[in-house]
Amino acid sequence: MAARRILYFTASEHFLYRSTFGGLELEARFAPNEQGLAEFQATLGDKAGALFAVLADLAGEDFHEEQIPLLRGGDREAVVARRLAQRYRDSRLAAALSLGPVTAGERRNERVLLASFTNTQQLAPWLDALEAAGTRLSGVYSVPLLAPALAASVGAREPRLFIVTAHRAGLRQCYVENGRIRFGRLEPTVDTAPGALAEFVRTESHRLHQYLVTLRALPRDGGPVKVLVVAPPGERAAFESKLTSDAGLFFRTIDYAEAARAVRLKQTPPDAQSEALFVQLAARKPPREQFAGRDDRRRYLVWQLQRGVVAAGAAGFLACALFSGSRWVDVFNTRSEAAQQAASAQNAAQQYERITATFPVTDTTTENLKVTVVEFRRIAERSASPDRAFRHVSAVLDRYPQFELDTLRWNVGKAGEARDAASTPAAPAAGVAPNAKADERPDLYQFTEVSGRVNATQRNDYRAITAQVQNFASALVTEGYELVRTQLPFDVTSEGTLSGDMGTAETNEAPRFTITIGKRLR
């Protein structure tokens, strides 16, 4: 975090602190007059671009609660600006603090606390000096605005809480409700003896309680309000003996050193009092609400925007670096896999060379052998097989038990090459041109010749035998098969002569038949 400088502004004297990692360092002190302003301007001569914040610890503060319509964005800003202009004559250092939504009938409103200084002119010249020096003003804060952060740091989270601290400017009292500031008051102190200061704290706490009850900011029967008192160093015991709780107030005293540890303040100037706690909070944990307008904070807002752009660029660069790293890892893995594949290929090539070295010497090259083997495999894969034809014939024979199979022949040939037992020309298959030209490649067929006998039929019943053989042949001509030739046990020529082998009575043989079917090879 960049070092910040905080101008602690009181009615009697102004202090310029520098926030460091270990705590606070007092750089300069200025009187609240023209000479002090001139010295302050001279101090700012070499601090252009430095981060500054102003912490005002003044008695003249105004807190006024109002309700506005529940709006968002520019509409809310316009309503708030109008309310501030109506409330304060000079709204340069004015703020509207949200106290949360509230439902009034059917309308939803928002409670806001309008806050400002009764005399902003005492701050204006010092803010103009910061603007003229080119510094970056993060905000103008008051001690009450930082009181909720102090309560959260020391672990005081009660819904209603008084925070009492002793400052250079006097006794500071802040009323915090549900973690939000509601009222602040500064009372000058004269006698700073431990016993007198503790008694003064008790008296002023009761006065503040009665005042807030009168304003109805506190309920009359709401129970005791907790009072958190930060005792000066070494005076906690004296404060606890004086601050006794009652029905209206419940006192809790903590030592200044304990509060400093809570806000991570390790080093403070020797003469600093409890205001150092709020200076540290203004430097390290400032609230979002503050009094300065956009014009006074213009350089700081631009600086924040620049930091945001740089942060976004750094995040984008980091994302790109991570993506590039992941891609580099992928490339490295790919190269490793490629190297492994290359090594495997080299080993395979060496093994192939060792195996081929044992082959017998041939009259041809290894490449020709490869081509031959590939072509042989292709021919073998496209060659016909008698398995399907035999299964087809077997399935048909199961449906005709009266047929007894004698021989089954299978061969592959051209259309018209099938011959019967007597070497008579076979009928060409359907769709095959008998006068095909010699230079045209004829279609190849697989032929299946089925020879057998017809049983369970009278030998002299020619018509029944013929019908059974024809039915059997028709059953075979399915699944793409074509009938090539049928040889019946007898034959009736066109001259009407009956011839054939019907068997003889002496041999008692069944009539024989032969059927040839063919199927085109695809």
Which features does this protein show?
single chain, alpha+beta, five-stranded mixed sheet
Structural class estimated from helices and strands:
alpha+beta
The geometry reads as elongated
Cα end-to-end separation: 85 Å
Low-confidence stretches: 419-441, 502-507
Give the helix level as a range of percent: 25-40%
Number of strands: 19
Task: Determine the strand fraction and express it as a percent band.
Answer: 25-35%
Summarize the structure.
With 522 residues, the chain is of the alpha+beta class.
Written overview of the protein:
- The chain has twelve helices and 19 strands.
- It has about 525 residues and is of the alpha+beta class.
- The chain has a five-stranded mixed sheet, with helices on both faces. It has a five-stranded mixed sheet with strand order 11-10-9-12-13, sandwiched between helices. Strands 14-15-19-16 form a four-stranded antiparallel sheet, with helices on one face.
- Helix 4 packs across helix 8 (about 275-285) and helix 5 crosses helix 6 (about 235-240).
- The radius of gyration is 56 Å and the shape is elongated.
